[in-house]
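pls design
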């Protein structure tokens, strides 16, 4: 039974009492492990757990770690039972059951949150006992804190679930808690987020939701109508699933329209997931990630530190435009709005895109045969000097104008142009009088944008109006 089923259980109990029916034990046993204590000078282990169903001395139980899967990891035989400091032969529905078992080699996998169960207990019940055990142990008893031993034993799934449960508990008490308690809980939440980060970056793999239209991790954001104050757009986040969670809810997750789930595997040096996140955050503009459900989200800066290029000469600083890419991807996910609400959201995204556009630095593909009059080349990027000759790809654009492809970063440029092409840095607006901009014209058309001279001038006017309002 999960923590959100308490009311349901109460209602069932009242109904049973009212009808004077006796509920016979089902014969099924499920126990979520709250604590493990080796007994000194013996080869025995004391397990404290929350019991649903009945258990008696001599029973054989299987155990599993639902965070890793439902396969049995071994079995144990109950040697002794006790409750409230009294030895008993049988226990039924006991919130703090104590059982003694022999220490076996297979028990090295046993931990807080493990589930002991009898034959016939389904996966849903085991998952519920797992959640209850984490809630009672790490939220109710340990108040959101993990010992070093807990940290070592916890999996990525465990850490996400503990963060979710502690956050839920904090929200239930936020109206009555003191400022001191609020600050203490905030620090605990920050520590739990750090633990999720550690487990994530060390994981073997993770699943990420991608947009079929943009070819990039899907950005999830909600727009709120605040009346006279206008509209508020929540931080765009990517969605990550642990393997256990994804396989459990695969059918529902895969049914989301215009999206596909991809496996992100870590590399031997444990940089694969970190590099994936760095690209999603600092090239694509995602502001963080949600884990398994929308209830658990962590900001980008906590998961992967922003690259620091402060010690590099400006010409050597990699070209990145996350503030532009973010809104292009969100607009691309919508593609052509079909409802009034989508029209409003699309216009909001375009507004933010316009603000970022004027501050951008793009890469224009430059033929390697181009010649420069001095040493203005640094790596594969160039700054155009007077009297230099260069070759750039130009195509027919819209309304009788030509366009030039510009890219927000090297990743997108290399999706279209191979190593024979270099890149010239283009300050936004530098060539707009001559060429329109085709931004990120990759195979994913919806992930880019076309900015004409007319549109660029409108963006400039819009920016000036905003600055004027800010001064007022």
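designed seq:
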């Amino acid at each position: 039974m999960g923590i959100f089923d308490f009311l349901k259980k109460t209602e069932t109990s009242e109904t049973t009492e009212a009808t004077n029916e006796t509920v016979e034990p089902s014969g099924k046993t499920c126990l979520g492990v709250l604590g493990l204590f080796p007994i000194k000078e013996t080869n025995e282990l004391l397990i404290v757990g929350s019991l649903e169903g009945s258990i008696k001395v001599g029973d054989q139980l299987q155990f599993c770690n639902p965070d890793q899967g439902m396969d049995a990891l071994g079995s144990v035989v109950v040697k002794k039972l006790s409750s409230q400091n009294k030895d008993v032969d049988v226990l039924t529905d006991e919130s703090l059951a104590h059982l003694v078992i022999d220490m076996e080699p297979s028990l090295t996998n046993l931990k807080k949150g493990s589930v002991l169960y009898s034959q016939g207990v389904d996966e849903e019940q085991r998952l519920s006992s797992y959640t209850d055990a984490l809630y009672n142990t790490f939220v109710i008893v340990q108040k959101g804190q993990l010992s070093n031993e807990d940290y070592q034993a916890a999996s990525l799934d465990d850490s996400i679930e503990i963060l979710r449960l502690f956050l839920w508990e904090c929200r239930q008490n936020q109206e009555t808690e003191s400022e001191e308690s609020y600050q203490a809980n905030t620090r605990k939440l920050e520590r739990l987020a750090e633990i999720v980060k550690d487990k994530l970056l060390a994981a073997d793999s993770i699943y990420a939701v991608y947009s079929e239209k943009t070819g990039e991790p899907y950005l999830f954001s909600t727009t709120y109508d605040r009346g006279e104050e206008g509209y508020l757009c929540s931080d765009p986040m990517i969605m990550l699933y642990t393997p256990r969670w994804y396989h459990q809810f695969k059918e529902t997750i895969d049914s989301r329209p215009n999206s596909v789930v991809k496996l992100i595997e870590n590399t031997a040096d444990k940089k694969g997931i970190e590099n994936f996140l760095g690209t999603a955050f600092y090239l694509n503009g995602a502001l963080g990630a949600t884990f398994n459900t929308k209830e658990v989200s962590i900001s980008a800066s906590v998961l992967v530190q922003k690259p620091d290029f402060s010690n590099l000469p400006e010409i050597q600083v990699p070209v990145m435009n996350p503030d532009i890419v973010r809104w292009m991807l969100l607009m691309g996910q919508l593609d052509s709005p079909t409802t009034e609400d989508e029209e409003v959201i699309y216009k909001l995204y375009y507004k933010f895109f316009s603000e970022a556009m004027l501050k951008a630095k793009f890469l224009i593909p430059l033929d390697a045969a181009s010649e420069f009059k001095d040493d203005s080349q640094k790596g594969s990027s160039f700054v155009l000097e007077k009297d230099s000759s260069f070759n750039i790809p130009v195509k027919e654009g819209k309304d009788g104008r030509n366009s030039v492809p510009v890219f927000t970063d090297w990743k997108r440029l290399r999706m279209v142009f191979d190593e024979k092409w270099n890149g010239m840095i283009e300050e936004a607006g530098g060539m707009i009088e001559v060429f329109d901009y085709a931004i990120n014209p990759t195979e994913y058309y919806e992930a880019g944008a076309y900015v004409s001279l007319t549109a660029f001038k409108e963006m400039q006017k819009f920016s000036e109006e905003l600055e004027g309002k800010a001064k007022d």
